[in-house]
Amino acid sequence: MRTKHIYTFDDIENFKTQLLNWAQQFNDVVWLDSNPSSNKTAQKYYRYDAILAVDAFTSIKTDYHKGFDKLKEYQNLVNDWVFGYLTYDLKNDIETLTSKNHDGLEFSDLCFFQPKKVFLINDNKVEIQYLKFVDDEIDDDLFNIKRNTPVAKGHVYSDIKIKLRIHKDEYFDRVNAMLEHIHRGDIYEANFCQEFYAENTQINALETYKKLNRISKPPFASFVKFEDKFVLSASPERYIKKKNNTIISQPIKGTAKRSDNLIEDNQLKADLLNDQKERSENIMIVDLVRNDLSKTAIKGSVQVEELCKVYTFNQVHQMISTVSSKVNKSTHPVDILKSTFPMGSMTGAPKISAMQIIEHLEATKRGIYSGAIGYFAPNDDFDFNVVIRSILYNETNKYVSYSVGGAITAKSDPLKEYEECLVKAKAMRTVLES
After folding, report:
1. What are the tens digits of pLDDT across the range 19-40?
2. Which of 56, 82, 356, 396: disulfide with 228, CB 3.0–4.6 Å?
């Protein structure tokens, strides 16, 4: 049971900054920010402007083996707010697949916790929910939050030397190998990713996140801290959401750069909307998502709400589709995740064949990249992003990483795919190298 109080703040943006600073004292932190002032056109499916969950009362951390069964058991047992992440490598729990590529980050395959303290922000109101045995700390915590004791800023970066796990010529070779699979009919489409990384590197995780969020202002930003592991995410993509008996998935396929020139920027947006290659990529993944949602949907309830709609973000234009379904009240939320995971936008079609080829051709274990961060609410609703446009950091290993990728189809030009990767990587590289 939780004690609940609602407070109103005149300057909610300042309070959000104070709140995230205050949260740094805890080992378990999940901060989710919709950046609502920058994403008004995408607000139709939002529930909260921002959420903070801190200080684990209970938790689960495991590898992929029976990962979804363990999560289901844990979520049933807790029956409360639960926050955390799913890594891409949980694919190995669902299908006979492996993950043997290089892993410099060493995140657990699955990690969730039941927070003692939750803050739910909408407009200028903050609903605070504390477990009963710590509710006597609410007043002191609010006092300390509003005092805004400065966090030692330090440097965002420290002589960071970004390396490529796959160099340009090798990237072309691997994309051409993937195209051979497509031309043979093994797959129609696959998402091919490459890692950029830095070793023996220390960053200030909070300040790096703040800078990344300022640059991008995405609708699914997150700051995640589990002891020495950090995710600093500027994700524009929702993986899947449940509200009552409605499921929403919003795959992104199709990216165009922005321009400071308004006429040119509008032209880039129009070109993306009318790009047949990008549209075909998006539609293929929409078909895959429809198929995934149908596994748990009430018969006949899967609908495409939006097809290939272009949304504009600070760094890029994106082509997004929205697919919905209805589920029975008895359908377990973890079963919905398991039946749709990993998300189609980060795998390909057919999904299993694409994942096999991805594992063979990529050089890095994806881990939390192209996984999902989010929460389960006490009423079994949930919301998860897709972990893209994200900086990942293992503080103990002094290892910093970000990955980018794109969909390879029969019409793909390896050079254009490489250039699209650089567009997607721009914000992370700018933040790290300043």
Report:
1. 999 999 999 999 999 998 776 5
2. 396
Least confident of 98-102, 156-160, 213-217, 300-304: 156-160
Instruction: Find, among 225, 208, 216, the residue nearest to 153 by Cα.
Output: 208
3-state secondary structure of 151: coil
Task: Look up residue 53 and give its two tokens.
Answer: 């969950």
- For residue 424, the surrounding DSSP H or E stretch is helix 414-433
- Written as six digits, the tokens of 207 are 């300040």
What DSSP string describes 44-93? GG-S-SEEEEEEEEEEEEE-STTHHHHHHHHHHHH-S-EEEEE-GGGHHH
In whole angstroms, what is the distance from residue 93 CA to residue 3 CA?
A: 37
Torsion of CA 238, 242, 245, 246, to 10 degrees: -10
What average pLDDT does this structure show over 400-410? 95
Rounded to 5°, angle at Cα 59 from 53 and 64: 115
Spell out the residues 6+ positions from residue 324 whose beta carbon is closer than 8 angstroms to its own.
Answer: 246, 247, 248, 249, 293, 301, 302, 303, 305
Q: pLDDT tens digits for 3-19?
A: 999 999 999 999 999 99
Q: What percent of the chain has pLDDT over 90?
A: 89
Task: Return phi, psi of residue 304, to 5°.
Answer: -95, 110
Q: Provide the angle, in degrees to the nearest 10, between the axes of the packed helices 168-184 and 351-361.
A: 150
Exposed (0-12), middle (13-18) or buried (19+): which is 410, by Cβ within 10 Å? Answer: exposed
Q: Per DSSP, what are the bridge partners of residue 119?
A: 52, 128
Strand bridging mode 246-249 / 28-33 = unpaired
As a whole number of angstroms, the distance between CA 331 and CA 391 comes to 34
CA atoms within 13 A on the CB side of 1: 3
Rounded to two decimals, the pTM is: 0.95
**CA gap 107, 373 in Å, rounded:** 13
| Nearest to 429, CA basis, from 411, 396, 393, 403 | 403
Catalytic residues: 237, 253
| β-strand partners of 192 | 406
Which residues on neighbouring strands pair with residue 385, listed in sequence order? Answer: 238
For 65, residues 6+ apart whose C-beta sits below 8 A from its C-beta are 93
d(CA 120, CA 311): 26
Q: How confident is the model at residue 73 (pLDDT cuts 50, 70, 90)?
A: very high
